[in-house]
Amino acid sequence: MQLNHDMARPTGSRTGIFSAPHATTGATRIAGLAVVLASSLLLGGCLTGQQMSRGDTVEGADMRMVEITPQLVTSGESAMAATPLPAELTSYRPQSYQIQPGDTLLVTVWDHPELTAPAGTQQSAASNGRLVYPDGTMFYPYVGNLKVAGMTIEELRSTLSSRLAKYLRNPQVDVSVTGNGGQVVLEGAFTNTAPQNLGTVPLTVSKAVGAGGINVEEADLSGLTLIRDGRSYNIDMDSLHRRGDVSDIYLKPGDRLYLPFNDRKQVYVLGEVTRPQALTFKTADMSLTQALGRTGGLNQVTSNGDAVYVIRGIDASNLTPQAPASATVYHLRAKSAAAFAVASAFPLRAGDVVFVGPAGITRWNRFFSQLLPLSAIVNSAANAQSNFND
After folding, report:
1. Domain for residue 117, yes or no?
2. Distance CA 93, CA 78 (A)
3. Does residue 32 form part of some domain?
4. In degrees rounded to 5, what are phi and psi of residue 113?
5. 198 in helix, strand or coil?
6. Which residues, listed in sequence order, are joined to residue 257 by a DSSP beta bridge?
7. Cβ contact 102:181 at 8 Å
8. Whole-number Å distance between alpha carbons of 178 and 104
9. φ, ψ (nearest 5 deg) of residue 68
């Protein structure tokens, strides 16, 4: 901005030299002009810069504004639908234990220690056990190689008794499993990821998770996944327990259980709250009241209770040229205590941004805190120009 130096010259002066009183007047005029200009800009748009309206857009997509009301939270629009467990999981019931490749079997033939403990009675059961080879066969004296994979314990006992009866009178045979080849693999946020053996007693998801132990600080309890036969099934343990669903799932050999970490499951609380931060949660959702409470609540001095927004972004996986998705902004008027009862029933999702806008007086205070240094700079510049002309 250029100023006409003649504005500051005394009437009738031809020398162009400032006197002290006129220099002060010139600086004051410049500072006052800056205040008027900045105030006009502020009144023209700065005060509404952090407000949202239904006409806003995000990257060319429409932004849908929705009020958070009792009708909204009871309608189920904002809630995450609970997914029931697939019938093929809940209906599966394991039959009697079937021998698997990798199993170690201890065959006991009463009154015949040379067959029961060929390595010696002082040795462990594992040393005297019979390994089932990867092809599903097992070798046993007087019987030879026998295909045992898929047999039950009772079927193998009966087969051995009939084969040994050719050499022994009325053989009494017993079979037990001392080592398991059928296992369930545990991965992710477990404290113990050692494989779980599938023995003669059926193993369920609850037992496997209990044996593995959950890293309660880092695990996402809603993301447990069972991988079976190339297909993945989500098992939301948190939602199941809250619904009182006590059904359990029996596991098969080769099943994998993956419990994800929750480091990517966050909501972001910004604006006029006591402690703006990213919040990690380990359940299916977090309520808006919980998020505000964990950040210390709305700042009682600077916040605007009518400007609480939840910004839910666009799901890129659902975007198509024919049906572009729209972002959704949920608006809560939180000036009354009753509003937080509604907010307690409003669930947040991973990636949501909670924004609390500033009160009008806060914007004015911040504007003037930025304007005062500016006016000081303008004053200094005017005084320097005055001194230079002197």
Report:
1. yes
2. 37
3. no
4. -65, -25
5. coil
6. 186, 226
7. yes
8. 6
9. -85, 105
Neighbouring C-alpha atoms within 13 Å toward the C-beta of 206? 9
Task: Give me the number of domains the chain comprises.
Answer: 3
Q: Say which CATH number the domain at 252 has.
A: 3.10.560.10
H and E: helices and strands count for the chain: 10, 19
- The answer to whether 268 touches 354, Cβ cutoff 8 Å, is yes
Residues 269 and 345 in one domain: yes
Q: Would you state the structure tokens that stand for residue 106, as one six-digit string?
A: 């201890």
Euclidean distance between CA atoms 341 and 54, whole angstroms:
25
Residue 128 neighbours by CB under 8 Å, 6+ apart: 106, 116, 117, 118, 119, 120
Does one domain contain both 209 and 286? no
> Do residue 161 and residue 242 come from a single domain?
no
Q: Which residues pair with 279 in a beta bridge?
A: 267
Is 61 contained in some domain? yes
Output the tens digit of pLDDT for each of the chain's 390 residues: 333 434 334 444 333 333 444 444 444 544 454 444 444 444 444 444 445 554 444 444 567 888 998 888 887 665 555 577 888 888 888 888 889 898 889 898 988 888 887 655 555 656 678 889 999 999 998 888 999 998 999 999 999 999 999 998 889 999 988 878 788 999 999 999 999 888 788 899 989 999 999 988 888 888 899 999 889 998 887 777 776 666 789 998 889 999 999 888 889 999 999 999 999 888 877 899 999 999 999 998 888 888 999 998 766 555 555 555 567 899 998 887 788 888 998 999 888 999 999 887 666 666 656 665 655 555 565 555 555 555
Q: How far apart are CA 239 and CA 233, in angstroms?
A: 15
CATH code, 138: 3.30.1950.10
Residues 124 and 169 in one domain: yes
Question: Where are the extended beta strands (E) located within 165-262?
Answer: 173-179, 183-188, 196-197, 224-228, 231-235, 256-259
Answer yes or no: do 254 and 212 share one domain.
yes
Structural domain span for residue 330: 47-79+264-358
3-state SS class at 106: strand
Dihedral class, residue 16 (left if φ above 0, else alpha if ψ from -120 to 50, else beta): left
